[in-house]
Amino acid sequence: MSVYHEQFMKAALEVAQEAYDNLEVPVGCVFVKDNETIIARGRNRPNETFNATRHAEIEAIDDILKENDTSIFLNTDLYVTVEPCVMCASALRQIGIRHVYFGCGNDKFGGNGSVFDIHSDPRLETSESKSYPSEGGYFRNEAILLLRRFYVRENDHAPAPKKKAARILKTDIPEN
Amino acid sequence: MSKNEIIPRSQWPFIEVLSDEHTRDLETVNVYVTKVEPKQTKQVLGFVQKHLPPLQNLEHCRRVRRTTLPDSNFELTLILCQENTISTEDIMKRASDQGLKEMIHIETVPVPKYAPLNRTQFEGWKHLWPILFREDTRQDPKFRPSDITAIENHLKAVTTLGSESAYARIVDPTDHQNKVIAEAADTRSTSHHPLHHAVMNCIDAVATLEKQHRGIETGGRPKRKVEEITDGPAEGGQKKTAYLCTGYDIYISHEPCAMCAMALVHSRIGRVFYNIPTKTGCLGTLYKIHSHSSLNHHYRVFRKETSSSSLSSTTTTTTLSGKEGL
Ligand SMILES: [Zn+2]
Ligand SMILES: [Zn+2]
Fold this sequence. Notes:
The structure holds two protein chains of two kinds.
Chain A: H1 6-21, E1 28-33, E2 37-43, H2 46-49, H3 56-67, E3 76-82, H4 86-95, E4 99-104, E5 134-135, H5 140-157, H6 164-167
Parallel strand pairs in A: 3-4, 4-5
Antiparallel strand pairs in A: 1-2, 1-3
Helix pairs in contact in A: 1-5
Chain B: E1 15-16, H1 20-23, E2 28-36, H2 41-51, E3 64-68, E4 74-82, H3 88-97, E5 106-112, H4 119-125, H5 145-161, E6 167-171, E7 180-185, H6 188-191, H7 198-213, H8 226-229, E8 249-254, H9 258-266, E9 271-276, E10 300-303, H10 307-311, H11 315-319
The complex binds zinc ion (ZN) (2 copies).
């Protein structure tokens, strides 16, 4: 049975910071086996790889499958700083993840409840695609602040910077 | 047929998978109306505009309906306001305050809730209440005979190549020869990787080509500057590095799953052509990921086969059964 451990979300946030340091949208994740061992870390790498599909989850899944069979996911949970997008939500069904814990929601692309319920849609059920439980809100503020810092920095480097007001880092985060 | 003639939608050998807004059936909302004498119309209209709640989101409905009677006279019916914004008693009270009590006889009728987005909706809905429709074909794809031939050839090719598993091919439609940029098969069973769908493999192949093109060793780490990855949007000239599929078309043997459909959103694909719908497909069957309002990029989708003919029991869906989309 899957049990949430705070230390793993902290580890995912560290990986997200690494994405930030590498000029990528700061999303990070860790895959945890048997509630105790981190078997892979992943961070966004679309810019570095010239491939918009290289999200944190996909990066880590590829690493795991280099050494393991897909059955490893039967006992593996995902901790990710931002709700998986529709693409990753579907990928997680297809690898058979056990449980997903995420930080902040993803209003634009979220596939675990924000835009679509890809993680739980019974119509998507096949022998190779299983619904999985998903919970959000863990270290939500930390995840959001990291994203905001990223976008403020990005706007500062844009050829035509947006109005100053848009670039001020907002640190108040409304509950939702 | 001249070489440059634009083929009308009705003659395309495929159909466009339109958003739910474009395909929805008639939905209605109730409004209060009253019959008016032609010579009193202006007076009643003035009252409505000044003293009743304004119509919201019903700009597509004409305010007055003219009905021709059997004796070739006509009758006018005028929308007062939406039901539930005000009670009928309140309307009548306001009418008497203005001395118009005798002119107003409230009835409730349904009118189309949404503006028609195409001719089919317009023709189907206009009988309920007169509605406005301005046909806008500016955004319509302009397919010429040579485009149709190229599309059909690519579709045929991916379908043949995708008879065993699924197959995808990305092409540059602006290249007059419709150059193939990359193509890939579904390799889930050979690579023992459940995410190696044809579309994902194809996007990977485009990225690999780009790296080679830039002289970056595959797997190596390119040196980038902040300015390079924070370029403006694609319209600004240079493509943002990860949006490699901007302006490209992809041809797929089967309707893609949610993962692949969203991967194409992330990659900023221009248009998708697929041959066969799938049970868990997300470009028409279960979802229309390409046209969802919250997503930041939309692409157009065209389907060769109709759902009914293929979802039933073609050999292809049997071979690929059990897979979530493709
Ligand atoms: Zn993702
Ligand atoms: Zn797929």
